[in-house]
Amino acid sequence: PRGEPGGGGTPEVLATIDTSNQPTTAGGALTFSDNPLISGTSITHQAGTPDVQITQPGIYQATFHGTVSVETGTSIPAELVTRLNLNGSAVAGASATHTFTSSNEIATVSFSVPFRVDSVPSTLEVVAEQNGFIFNESAFTVIRLGDAT
């Protein structure tokens, strides 16, 4: 016996990046300047903005990583928390914290988490909770895993 052929359809994925030096603003969202990969229609992003739009309910996976340094004048030790917001609220498990112990320190912060979207349109943003840091080489990828059950 044979089952139905596989294939699964078109993957729904958005990859967005920013390679510029981007100073943080407490509670401010990071912007992403380029979209090197867009497949499907349920995840969109306007280059140069912080907002990633989701237009179809379902289960998604968000992955973020960025290189961070300390801005001149920031008191050490200094803690940076980076988090994912969905419609202005923090997504559980989608945060990264780093405590800088030197003004010359460079760190990579990252998180990867699945989450559910029940109402659309919905907006995702990567937010830095503190002033005094500079992001560089940031990447944010969102993948639609499937329908919510």
Commentary on this structure:
- The chain is mostly beta strands and 149 residues long.
- Helix content is 0%, strand content 60%.
- The protein contains no helices and twelve strands.
- It has strands spanning 12-18, 22-23, 28-29, 34-39, 43-45, 52-54, 58-70, 78-86, 89-100, 106-117, 122-128, 133-146.
- Strands 1, 2, 4, 7, 10 and 12 form a six-stranded antiparallel sheet that branches. Strands 3, 5, 6, 8, 9 and 11 form a six-stranded antiparallel sheet that branches.
- Strand 8 (78-86) and strand 9 form a beta hairpin.
- It is elongated and about 50 Å long.
- The mean pLDDT is 94.
What topology does this entry show?
Layout: E1 12-18, E2 22-23, E3 28-29, E4 34-39, E5 43-45, E6 52-54, E7 58-70, E8 78-86, E9 89-100, E10 106-117, E11 122-128, E12 133-146
Antiparallel strand pairs: 1-4, 1-12, 2-12, 3-11, 5-6, 6-11, 7-10, 7-12, 8-9, 8-11
Q: Sketch the major β-sheet.
A: 6 strands, antiparallel
Q: Judging from the principal axes of the Cα atoms, what is the shape?
A: elongated
Q: Find the count of extended strands (DSSP E, 2+ residues).
A: 12
Low-pLDDT windows of residues: none
**Would you tell me the structural class of the helices and strands?**
mainly beta
Count of helical stretches: 0
The averaged pLDDT comes out at 94
Strand content: over 45%
Spell out the helices and strands N to C: EEEEEEEEEEEE
* Terminal-residue CA separation: 29 Å
Radius of gyration: 17 Å
The percent of residues in helical segments reads under 10%
